[in-house]
Amino acid sequence: MAELNRQEIERQQQLWVDNWAKMMVQIWKDRLSFYNIRCTGALMESFTEDVTHDGLAASIIFRFLAYGVYQASGVGYGYTHGNGGDLPFLGADYRHEHRLDVPRKVGPAWGGGYTSGFPREKRDWLNRKLYASIMKLKEAMAHMVGEQAAAVLCDALMDNRRFIVRNL
């Protein structure tokens, strides 16, 4: 009986983690739409999740274009690894000197769009939602493991009761 309960609880946990990973991707896509990060759609189409289970343990790997991290951080062209976040093109003096503070055409002559003239801002579609969702996953997993422990304990008590009743 205990083995059946453990198997069912393990199956429910695996199903919950699989659905959680799919929901995270959907939440991220919704956040990208909310922040209007979809010029080409490449970032939104790049999301994949890979969940592997090993008993009660699970490993979740999310993949998406690195460009998305730059959008969430408010950096992009001009950022180099190891510069400590010093982006001179975000400063007011630099922007005025190089006329980055006025709207201008970007892209090819026949298409493209216009800049706003404002410096880049963080559009954090990733970190806050990820942290909150991981905390929710942690709570759900703790609840499920608690249910499994309770089932094992109940089965052990029932076995002890049967043994006592049989030997009276």
User: How large a portion of the residues is in β-strands, by DSSP E?
Assistant: 5-15%
Unreliable segments of 5+ consecutive residues: none
Largest beta sheet: what is the strand line-up? 1-2
Shape: elongated
Number of strands: 4
Count of DSSP helices? 5
Account of the 3D structure:
- A hairpin with a 2-residue loop joins strand 1 and strand 2.
- The protein has 5 helices and 4 strands.
- The two termini are 24 Å apart.
- Helices cover 54% and strands 11% of the residues.
- The radius of gyration is 26 Å and the shape is elongated.
- The model has no long low-confidence stretch (mean pLDDT 80).
- It folds into 2 domains: 2-74 and 121-166; 83-120, no CATH class.
- Helix 1 (2-34) runs antiparallel to helix 5 (127-166).
- It is mainly alpha-helical and 168 residues long.
- The longest helix is centred in the C-terminal third of the chain and has 40 residues, at 127-166.
Q: How would you summarize what this structure contains?
A:
The chain is mainly α and 168 residues long. It is 54% helix and 11% strand. The chain folds into 2 domains: 2-74 and 121-166; 83-120, no CATH class.
